[in-house]
Amino acid sequence: MSASQPDLALRGTLLRFRGDPFEMPPDEALDIETDGIVLIRDGHIVETGPFARLKDRLPPGTGLHDYSNCLIGPGFIDAHVHYPQFGVIASYGEQLLSWLERYVFPEERRFSDPGYATQIASAFLDALLANGTTTACVYCTVHPESVDAFFSESQRRNTRMIAGKVLMDRNAPDFLCDTAQSGYDQSRALIERWHDRGRQLYAVTPRFAPTSTREQLALAGALLDTSGTLFMQTHLLETTAEERWVRSLFPERRSYLDVYDHAGLVRPRSVFGHAVHIHDADLHRCHDAGCAIAHCPTSNAFLGSGAFDLFEALRPDRRVHVALGSDIGGGNALSMLRGMNDAYCAAQSHDRRLHPVQAYWLATLGAARALGLEASIGHLTPGIEADLCILDPFCTPVLAQRSARAESVADLLFALSMLGDDRAVRATYVMGVRQPRPRGWARET
Ligand SMILES: [Zn+2]
């Protein structure tokens, strides 16, 4: 955005965080401005406050977008998602390992074609933004072309995305395998091409331990050693069958997490998808290492993988960073509102209550903190990049009648998470630019 672009002011109810809702009463963690303004300049938030105080002080020429009756908050962060699986979401009848064989691997094969990869990357990013998600940790395929296609489309939209080439050198179809060395070399070239270029960030991405040799995992660790700002993403303990498989492949290691740890992959900016069946000792290790778990409750329910025990992972004496992930196509919804819904249900199955402000935190500032991106995204603080999601609690008849009875903003958030989806996203802003609603989506903004 050029410096000459006029300032922009958004009016509505502001959702700011006063603190961490897992460390203080959740209702007090939200700092609500019921009639407020977010002032944006050059793609960044420069001020927030009451409309009554700021309205007469706006710089001349400031554009005002009125979202009265809507909630203005940070864009959602999806900490675990596979863009190449966008086309095979909602595929019937399998659990994890057979679902990969039957649906995912044949589809991922198609991403050697840059044209196809670009087409899906574009549709996927449009869908993310229509759902109010402005940052995601994204798995591409084994093909470097799939990574170039994704980052090119993300760069075109100026979105802050984290993505990487999947590493797989065994236990997968030949057409989806690299080698330890070719995976390393291709990743290295992609890091040079994309990491920290504009808003793009690279994640070293071994798919999961069963599809990588010891040599490939060690080289993934060597890639991370080349820069402290790189991310790492992989899967961990999604199902019990997977855990048994890993134990048979790596009998010398203490645990599944220890396989990754031995390769130097357990560190800050490492994101482990699922961890449904994680044990106490490994939670201690995650706490000490400062890595993050991407909790993917929608996917876990869809594939019958189990229910992650969120509050056990957040136990105060050894708290682990946790963010929410949609895990498309294991998950069947991109909406982080749906992720908040399913996280509530997963907590219920452990007889714990996930407060709506806590759920909202996991999808916004808590995720930014888990990823080490709190200085850039995830909250409405001056200096932060203006990636915003405007939520409309009155967007459908069912939601509107429930929202009319809401007793608090937290209750509105709960209603939104239980009853909302992309229709509740009134607008999405990326670096202060309102995103066009793609053709075919329900609402024009
Ligand atoms: Zn996944």
Automatic annotation (TrEMBL):
Start and end residues of each Amidohydrolase-related domain: 74-432
Q: Which EC number applies?
A: 3.5.4.3
InterPro entries, per database record: Amidohydro-rel, Guanine_deaminase, Metal-dep_hydrolase_composite, Metal_Hydrolase, Metallo-dep_hydrolases
Highest taxon of source? Bacteria
BP GO annotations: guanine catabolic process
Look up the record and report any one GO term of the cellular component aspect: cytosol
Single GO term (MF) = zinc ion binding
Q: How is the cofactor bound?
A: Binds 1 zinc ion per subunit.
**Swiss-Prot/TrEMBL cofactor(s):** Zn(2+)
Known catalysed reaction(s)? guanine + H2O + H(+) = xanthine + NH4(+)
Record keywords, A-Z:
Hydrolase, Metal-binding, Zinc
> What function does this protein fulfil?
Catalyzes the hydrolytic deamination of guanine, producing xanthine and ammonia.
* Record-stated family: Belongs to the metallo-dependent hydrolases superfamily. ATZ/TRZ family.
The identity of this protein, by name, is Guanine deaminase
What organism is this sequence from? Swaminathania salitolerans
Q: Which gene encodes it?
A: guaD
